[in-house]
Amino acid sequence: MKGQLRTQELIEKLEKSGIIISKRTIEYYQELGLLPRPLRKKGAKTGGGVLGYYQPNVVDIIRSIHTQKDKGLTLSEIKDNLRDTLFEKYKQHYKEWGVLDSLPHNAEKEK
Question: Fewer CB within 10 Å, N- or C-terminus of the chain?
Fold first, then answer.
């Protein structure tokens, strides 16, 4: 998918900027609602398995998470900050991609 990153590409891009992160950490951030789940597409090159694709802005979100962690914030505090800043910034993109309603951030903010 053009412009989007597979998990390994996301990890490699972050490593180039000095952020070491594992696939499991990315999944954990998704479980906590810090990151949106990847868009899914059946992958012909992988024997028909499902590949996850991330929007490029996920790099910025992970950088923000790590910057805030370095400042001593908890993941809960970071989640609140992300909801109020980055997710609002990218809200239109999420709406265009059809994932806005599935984001835990959107559901929590509406409560």
Answer: C
Q: What is the mean pLDDT of residues 9-34?
A: 93
What distance lies between CA 57 and its chain's CA centroid? Answer: 8
Enumerate residues 6+ apart whose C-beta is below 8 A from 48: 42
Sheet containing 39-42, strands listed edge to edge, beginning at the edge strand earlier in sequence: 5-6, 50-54, 39-42
Question: Which domain, by its residues, includes 52?
Answer: 5-110
pTM above threshold 0.85: no
Query: Residue 78's domain is classified under what CATH number?
Result: 1.10.1660.10
pLDDT on residue 43:
57
